[in-house]
Amino acid sequence: MSKIIELKNINKWFDKFQALKDVSLEVNLQEKIVICGPSGSGKSTLIRCINRLEEHQDGSIVVDGIEISSETKNIEKVRAEVGMVFQQFNLFPHLSILDNCSLAPIWVKKLPKKQAEKLAMENLTRVQITDQALKFPGQLSGGQQQRAAIARALCMEPKIMLFDEPTSALDPEMIKEVLDVMVDLAKGGMTMIVVTHEMGFAKEVADNMIFMDEGRIVEKAKTKDFFENPKSDRTKLFLSQIL
Amino acid sequence: MINNLIFKKPNVNNLKQYVSIGLLFLTFSFLDVFLNSLFKINLTSALPGFISFFLPLIIGFIGFYLIRIEHTGNVFLDTANKKINLTPFNSVLTLLSIFVLVKYIPLLLNWLIFEANISGTTKEDCTGNGACWVFIKVWIKRFMYGMYPNAEQWRINTAFLILFVTVGSAFFIPEKYKKYLISFSILGLPLIAFILIYFLISGGFFGLEWVETGAWGGLSLTFIVSFFALIFCFPIGVFLALGRRSDLPAIKYSSIGFIEFWRGVPLITVLFMSAVMFPMFLPDGVYMDKLIRAIIAITLFEAAYMAEVVRGGLQALPRGQYDAAKSLGLGYWRMNFLVILPQALKLVIPGIANTFLALVKDTPLIYVVGLLELVGMIGLGKTNPKWLGMATEGYVFAGVVFWVICFSMSRYSQKLEKELSTER
User: Collapsing DSSP states into helix, strand and coil, what is residue A96?
Assistant: First the structure.
């Protein structure tokens, strides 16, 4: 298995508050990792560091052989290879769903417009909202918006997908349609790091589970071991509360 | 019966009596004001002055009280009660606004039209009590073209005609080329306008007589100054707004310094400095026309305001939009021009329109550098010994012209706002 992401001793501060404490993590190609933990534990900050939406102050992050530092060129290269899906969808409200998806392929990958739109339609079909392509984000339901956001990230044909609590802002009814798309994606062999509280999803797709608390990785284990035989007391307490 | 009517709350049961008596009161009240306004007849002159003055209001108030009945079933009456007669205070406002209109609209129309003079060529031809539009008629060419020689005015007309046709045709271009519209209006349009103005209005080429900018003036100068300042202050303002939010300290603080400097000084001093101090900084032998200097001064001044308006829009966008654009690999410029600015600018269209209107209405201040646009020319006209005392007519005329220009701009901005809205 080849390593695609390598984090070594990451430290990050927001002013005086230390959000990440000496975090190290290796992710192999095609590996699926689910990160859980209480709010404020640094889960989102950790995955936002991987595509430099947050700056880390100490340690090193290497993504697909590219070291992330303050060099802008590297950052943009990494971002083009790492797709991200947000809790609040963050679709661009002034563009149609199709334009949302074809924007980055046209301007970052320099694909011709026709080809980019074809790519966009393929990915919209993959998340099953082909019929919404010409609508604007404001006209779609939450579940449809989140699936469109996944399609938009997929259009850059990323090697890695990051999910930052993708179902937390959704009505219970819509969570399933988004999770289904993510399960599909996982089966297709995508490398995925998912921050979520959906433990059913984690059991189904994750290779490894990570539990974080107060900016540290408390426990990292194979999914089966994690749920059946957690080692730390903190993990046991957390699992007893959410399962 | 009558006693009962007045002191009981009106209700549906004796609707007809209440409504007919109420309307009678109202009719009397309006008739009194109407006759007084149009024919100077006072129906209630027998009463003491104080009561006579307030009588229409009191009678009308009683009338409205009598017809204020909750849900009668009569659509007209119900609508009227809901819109203009909901509460006693509401009915007083209704009466007062009707009285003010009845009283002053005839006065205004008399001054503007019925008693105004339009025929003749001198001030002495104005014999009526109304406005003396002869002044405007005689001076109209000066008000439009300033001191531009009469024989050469076709050049201004031609230049403006070409420009208007160019701008107007932009509305009819096919959908396919619409994306080039912004770059055209920022780069192409000013260039075309400059060429037209330089060769046609200024002249000195192809046998056209050279006309110095000091002779330009009137409404055409208002348009020239506003046009260039509008077109240039917008992009400069956008870049300043981006600069103010930049992570690079050098760019950030120079943007803040620039914006705060221009916002802190009155336009009139800026224009004065452009005329007096600016030439001292130019190398010997370099000369910049005072019109160009004035346009630059207004542009930079309004750009500072524009920058703050645009910054407001940038701040209103949720951080998620920046995150999403970055996560897709869009760099700084592409993120701003493809994702952030289209949304931010749409949010602040009312503020942009505000700044544009303020700019147009600020142009008269160029009189301090000796350039006389519409208001300046009117100021000149009213001090002409043959036309003393024409200030009211002149400024009313200027007010109407500016109002028409600004109102059309305002309507256009509202139309744009609706067209660009994607929230449904």
Answer: coil
- Give the pLDDT confidence score for residue B9 in this predicted structure: 62
Name which of B190, B297, B316 is nearest B241 in CA terms: B316
Instruction: Tell me phi and psi for residue B394, to 5 degrees.
Output: -60, -50
Which of A86, A94, A156 is facing B422, going by the closest CB pair? Answer: A94
* C-alpha distance across the termini of chain B, in Å: 57
| Whether A86 and B330 lie within 8 Å, measured CB to CB | no
The residue of A49, A68, A90, A157 whose CB has the most chain B CBs within 10 angstroms, and thus the best one to mutate to test that interface, is A90
Residue pairs between chains A and B whose CB atoms are closer than 8 Å: 72
Global confidence as pTM = 0.83
CA dist B55 and B269 (Å) reads: 54
> Mean of the per-residue pLDDT values for chain B?
83
Give the burial class of A114: count Cβ atoms within 10 A of its Cβ; 0-12 exposed, 13-18 middle, 19 or more buried: exposed
pLDDT at B1: 47
The candidate with the shortest Cα–Cα distance to A161, out of A123, A132, A119, A212, is A123
Mean pLDDT of B281-290: 78
3-class SS of residue A97: helix
B276 near B210, Cβ under 8 Å? no
- Asked whether the beta carbons of residue A90 and residue B328 sit closer than 8 angstroms, the reply is no
* φ, ψ of residue B131 in degrees (nearest 5): -70, 155
Sheet strands side by side (includes A216-222) = A82-85, A160-164, A191-195, A32-36, A208-213, A216-222
Find the CB nearest A104 among B320, B323, B329. Answer: B329
Give residue A82's pLDDT.
92
In 3-state terms chain A splits into helix, strand, coil percentages (rounded to 5) of 40, 25, 30
Q: What would the two tokens of residue B20 be?
A: 């007919």
Q: How far apart are CA B57 and CA A45, in angstroms?
A: 69
Q: How far apart are CA A121 and CA A101, in angstroms?
A: 8
Position B12 pLDDT exceeds 70: no
Report phi then psi at A62, rounded to 5: -120, 120
**pLDDT tens for residues B385-422?**
888 888 888 899 889 999 999 999 999 888 888 888 76
Task: Give contacts of A63 with chain B, Cβ < 8 Å.
Answer: none
What pLDDT is stored for residue B424 in this prediction?
Answer: 46
B328 to A79: CB separation less than 8 angstroms, yes or no: yes
| Position B11 pLDDT exceeds 70 | no
Burial class (CB in 10 A: 0-12, 13-18, 19+), B166: middle
Cβ neighbours for B344, distance < 8 A, ≥ 6 positions apart? B310, B313, B314, B316, B317
Examine the predicted complex and report whether its ipTM is higher than 0.95.
no
Looking up tokens 């300042």 gives B229
CB atoms within 10 A of CB B165: 10
Tokens 């190398």 belong to B283
Task: Please name the residue of chain B whose CA is at the shortest distance from the CA of residue A75.
Answer: B329
pLDDT the model gives residue A104:
92
Of B18-27, B140-149, B182-191, B294-303, the least confident: B182-191
